[in-house]
Amino acid sequence: MEPVQNAYAVVMAGGRGERFWPESRLSRPKQFLDLLSGKSMIEQTVDRLLPLFCPDHILVITHERYAGIVRELLPDLPEQNILPEPAARDTAPCIALAAAQAERFARERGEQDPVLCVVPSDHVIQETAAFCQVLRDGCCLARFEPCIVTVGIRPTFPCTGYGYIRIGDRLESPIRLETEMYRGLEFREKPDECTAEAYLKSGCYRWNGGMFMMACSTLVQAFRKEAPEMYAFYERLVSCFRNADGEKEIHLERFRKVYETAPRISIDYAVMEKVSCLVVADCSFSWDDLGSWPSLRNHVNQDENGNAVLGLCVCEDSRNCIIDNSNDRHLVAVLGMENTVIVHTEDATLVCSEKSAQKIKKLLSLLSEDDDLKRFL
Fold first, then answer.
1. How far is CA 360 from the centre of its chain?
2. How many other CB atoms are there within 10 angstroms of residue 263's CB atom?
3. E strand map for the chain
4. CA distance 22 to 285
5. Closest CA to 199 of 213, 185, 211
6. Which of 33, 38, 260, 327 minimizes the number of CB atoms within 10 Å of its CB?
7. What is the DSSP code (8-state) at residue 84?
8. What are residue 62's DSSP bridge partners?
C-alpha cells in the first residue's frame, strides 16, 4: 500500500493508564507496556501506521516525562517528531500541538494544508489491512472536502464501556472510496445495558473509535467557530513555531509558558460534538480500546472455567477470573474465586471483583494521599 501524501499520523501517547495499575505506573503507563503480543502497545500502533505513513510523517505527542521512553521504543522516528507536552491538558491541546508541528513540517517541505490522522496509542486492532484502508479513505475524503472523519466501529454486542456515535444518511462521496461513509449526528456517552441493547438493535449507532482525520485548515476553522479558547491557544502555539527572524528552532521557554495556559478539554467536547461537518467511516474490523483489566478477557485464551491467565498461576475451583502475574519466580495460586481480577507485580498486588475494576482510580487516589504509599503509583 502506497503512503498517503501530504498527511501526518498523530499518535496520542500521554495517558496514564491508571485502570491497568499495578502494571501501569506513572513512570511507565499502559501504552509503553507489553500486555499481549511481545511488543509495547505504542510499538504496535506505529507498526500499523507504517504501511501508510513514512517515519518522518508520524508524530508522537506525549508528556515530557515519557519522551525518553518513546525514543527508546521508537528509534526509527526522527527525534523532532516526538513532541513532549510540558503539562497534561487532554486531547484538544494535544491535537492542536500536532497541527502546529505538521504545518511547520509542511512549510519546510513545500507542502500546504496537511491532513492529520489522529489515533490513540493503546488500542488493540488485529486486522491491519482493513484498518489501513479505512485510514486511507478517511484521509482522502478529508483532503477533498472540509470535513472531519471519525472512525465508527459496528458494535457486535451491547457494550456499556464504550462511547457511541449516531449515524445518519450515507454520504455519496465524489471520489471513489472502499469505506462506506455516513453523516455523523451525535455522540453518546457510555450507556447503561438497556440503552446499549437498544443502540445495537437500531443499527444506527457505532462505537466511538477515538480516531479522527481532517485537514489542518478544517481543524483550525472548527477551533475558531466552536472553541474560541482553543483557537487562541493554537495561535499562540503557532507563534512558538514560526519565529519572526526565520529561525526553524522552536522557542522552548515560550512554548512551555503557552502550553501551561492551554484549556483542559478533550477534542470531543471542544469540537467533535459541535461540528456539522462530521463524517463517520463505517468499520467492521476487530477493535478494543483496552480500557481496564476485564477487557483482557477478549484477547487471552481462557481455560475450561473461563479463567484468563497470563503468567505463572494455578487455579482450582475458580471461575471467570482474570489473572496477570508478571513475576516468573512467584506462583499465584487461586482457590474458590469467581469473577475476580488478580494482578501481581514485583512490588504490588491487586485483588478486586471484576465489576470494581473500573474504580481503580479511586484506589490510586488513596495511595496519592499517603506519603508512604505514593511510591507505588
1. 19
2. 16
3. 7-12, 58-63, 82-85, 115-120, 124-125, 148-153, 164-170, 181-188, 205-215, 278-283, 287-288, 308-310, 313-316, 322-325, 332-335, 340-344, 349-353
4. 30
5. 185
6. 38
7. E
8. 84
Q: pLDDT at position 333, please?
A: 96
Pairing of strands 322-325, 308-310: parallel
* pTM of structure: 0.92
Q: Are residues 137 and 179 in contact, defined by beta-carbon separation less than 8 angstroms?
A: yes
Which stretches in the chain have pLDDT values below 50?
244-247
With cell 481480577, the residue in question is 341
- Specify whether the CB–CB gap between 267 and 234 falls below 8 A: no
Interhelix angle 228-241/91-108, nearest 10 degrees: 40
The DSSP bridge partners found for residue 333 are 314
Position 244 scores a pLDDT of: 45
Residue 265: count other Cβ atoms within 10 Å of its Cβ.
Answer: 18
Q: Please report which residue ranges of 242-318 form alpha helices under DSSP H.
A: 252-259, 267
pLDDT attached to residue 217: 97
Cα dihedral sign, 356-358-361-364: positive
Per-residue pLDDT reduced to its tens digit, 332-368:
999 999 999 999 999 999 999 998 988 899 999 999 9
Q: Name every residue whose Cβ is closer than 8 Å to that of residue 172 and which is 6 or more positions away in sequence.
A: none
Buried b (16+ CB within 10 A) or exposed e, 360-369: beeebeeeee
The single residue listed with the C-alpha cell 478477557 is 297
